[in-house]
Design brief:
Number of helices of chain B: 12
Strand content of chain B: under 5%
Order of helices and strands of chain B: HEEHHHHHHHHHHH
Strand content of chain A: under 5%
Number of helices of chain A: 13
Radius of gyration of chain A: 24 Å
Number of domains of chain B: 1
CATH topology of chain B: MetI-like fold
CATH class of chain B: Mainly Alpha
CATH architecture of chain A: Orthogonal Bundle
Helix content of chain A: over 70%
CATH topology of chain A: MetI-like fold
Number of strands of chain B: 2
Structural class of chain B: mainly alpha
Largest interface: A-B, 84 and 86 residues
Oligomer: heterodimer
Largest sheet of chain B: 2 strands, antiparallel
Radius of gyration of chain B: 24 Å
Order of helices and strands of chain A: HHHHHHHHHHHHH
CATH superfamily of chain B: MetI-like
Distance between the termini of chain A: 49 Å
Structural class of chain A: mainly alpha
Chain lengths: 279, 292
């Protein structure tokens, strides 16, 4: 066999192997989707078989029972509040602390980023007490605000490292033209930060949208404030043996992320890589 | 107000929101944890009784649950770090090759990572029970009939497997980025010097992957040490205490048993444990990096 043929054959073998591995890898997700279109009896009879007559009755039942649209809105509100605060406060702090170097800036920067070393579970017990005292527990807005505190350290770190590469001439010339510091931030600095802002948003949306433990501690007691994952968790717990409803709830919980991912794959992967390398 | 003072005030004002928020959510609860670890407190009563270091004595000497959970977490983290990095490097090497659908395959491996870990736990609970049952029916192979979630030894591997399955895609994309950053001429030089495929990989690619390697090891380490959601959905720490991670132990101690004082003491020990382990590993790895 010629070298070229050999290489081509090797490539085909590799592609087949890869297809098999990827197929097995994603098979559980496929099973979850497929079985959500079956009635209970069919799941029990044969998990692997394709639905005899796929129907949406599981979905109409679960969407109604879980109050899916409300949960979706809750998630959206919490995530939006969280992201807005993290991006605003972290970029503002990173900007000023990088441009005004000095003793205060060094101390403030260190204080802001050091909590990256504190695992959430270390503080969760007393956090609940502290948040009860200042009334941030038990509400969607309160939960969104809490994400500011948890997201700011990492976001500031990422913004700060990027700020160091932004030439100072940019804002100095604006200041000479008479722009205030705030004005410079809004119209010069923030637009320059665009790519890194995007990284922060990707990382934090994935985190907040899917977060489980903090919502469990803060907003689980009330059906009005529950998040998507939290409600799915409770629902699956109640529907322990009724896999048809449990699987449908699980699909509904992950389907928004999957749809977004399909459309924005490249950007999401780039954001995640950039975040990990910088963070 | 002079210009200098004005600038100083501005610096403080601009950085204050971030500082205050971090203090509120992280430092104050952290200091409170330190205080409550020295008290007996059920979380409800206003007054916590100061009992000195009694809680630390309790968690290390009177009950073995906490120490066991530390062991479990260490074992889990070790398996998680090694398995996810080895598999991720292997798959990344294949997926950096130029072929059609390469992006599609990367996407497939990344999908579990964008899903909530709790749901991932549930999916696998379904597979381990209903799915495996059917596979046993069809194939008659004993592997499918084992009690993957009910057996105290097997359950460790099930949990670790699901953990790796969920996050493998993340490490794959990091390694792909690392592999693409390796300059092509260095690899070509190795081929010209007569290196075969294996030598090329172990002597050139792997050492030059250093920075990605350090990042991935560090990330997998901290994620392994923090494992919680997957275990809660899959086994709730069971059967018995077979998959009781430290985080699960702290959660139960505080919110199920209402021993907030003991829970806080465990939190503090856990914090120190994570800090020491990550710093040691980070030091060991940053020394070995190869610069170009």
């Amino acid at each position: 066999m010629s070298m070229k043929k050999k290489r081509k054959l090797g490539r085909i073998v590799m592609l087949i192997c890869l297809t098999v591995i990827a197929g097995i890898y994603i098979y559980p997700v496929y099973l979850m989707f497929m079985n959500s279109f079956k009635p209970f009896g069919e799941i029990i009879a044969d998990v692997l078989a394709f639905p005899i007559k796929p129907d949406l009755s599981n979905y109409t039942y679960v969407i109604d029972k879980m109050k899916y649209l409300k949960l979706f809105r809750n998630n959206l509100i919490i995530t939006l509040i969280g992201i807005a605060g993290i991006v605003l406060f972290a970029s503002l702090a990173a900007y000023i602390l990088d441009r005004r170097r000095g003793k205060y800036s060094t101390i403030a920067y260190t204080l802001i980023i050091t909590p990256m070393l504190i695992p959430f579970q270390t503080i969760m017990i007393t956090l609940l007490k502290a948040m009860n005292i200042i009334h941030l527990s038990g509400s969607k807005i309160g939960l969104g605000i809490q994400y500011w505190g948890f997201g700011i350290p990492m976001a500031t770190f990422i913004f700060y490292n990027f700020m160091k590469t932004v030439p100072r001439e940019l804002d100095e010339s604006a200041e000479i033209d008479g722009a205030s510091t705030l004005r410079t931030y809004v119209s010069i600095i923030f637009p320059v930060l665009k790519s890194v802002t995007f990284t922060v948003i990707v990382l934090d949306v994935m985190w907040i949208w899917n977060d489980f433990l903090l919502p469990l501690l803060m907003v689980n007691s009330n059906n009005e404030t529950k998040t998507l994952v939290l409600a799915a968790y409770t629902f699956v717990g109640q529907m322990n043996t009724k896999w048809n409803y449990a699987l449908t709830a699980m699909v509904l919980a992950v389907v928004p992320s999957i749809i977004v991912f399909i459309f924005l794959q490249k950007y999401i992967v780039d954001g995640v890589v950039a975040g990990a390398v910088k963070g | 107000m002079t210009r200098k003072v004005k600038k100083q005030v501005e610096t403080i004002v601009f950085s204050m929101p971030a500082l205050i928020l971090v203090c509120m959510m992280m430092y104050i609860p952290f200091v409170m944890s330190g205080y409550y670890s020295l008290t007996e407190w059920n979380g409800i009563s206003k007054e916590a009784k100061f009992i000195g270091l009694q809680n630390f004595k309790t968690i290390f000497l009177e009950s073995s649950d906490f120490v066991q959970s530390l062991w479990f977490t260490m074992k889990y983290t070790l398996v998680f770090v090694i398995a996810s990095n080895v598999l991720a490097i292997a798959l990344a090497v294949v997926l950096t090759k130029k072929f059609r659908f390469a992006n599609f395959f990367r996407g497939v491996f990344f999908i579990p990572y964008i899903m909530s870990m709790t749901i991932v736990g549930f999916i696998w609970k379904f597979i381990f029970t209903s799915g495996f049952e059917k596979l046993y029916e069809i194939t008659g192979m004993g592997v499918w009939n084992l009690s993957w979630l009910g057996d105290t030894t097997l359950v460790f591997y099930s949990v670790a497997f699901v953990g790796v399955w969920q996050s493998l895609g993340f490490y794959i994309v990091l390694y792909i980025a690392g592999l693409q950053a390796i300059p092509q001429d260095v690899l070509e030089a190795a081929i010209v010097d007569g290196a075969n495929g294996r030598q090329k990989f172990f002597k050139v690619t792997l050492p030059l992957l250093g920075p990605s390697f350090t990042t991935c090891i560090f990330m997998s380490l901290t994620n392994g040490l923090k494992v919680f959601d997957i275990i809660l959905a899959l086994t709730k720490g069971g059967p018995g205490t077979a998959t009781n991670s430290v985080t699960m132990q702290i959660y139960k101690e505080a919110f199920t048993n209402n021993h907030y004082g003991t829970g806080s003491a465990q939190s503090i020990v856990y914090f120190l444990f994570v800090l020491i382990v990550t710093q040691l590993v980070l030091k060991a790895f940053s020394k070995k990096e190869v610069d170009l």
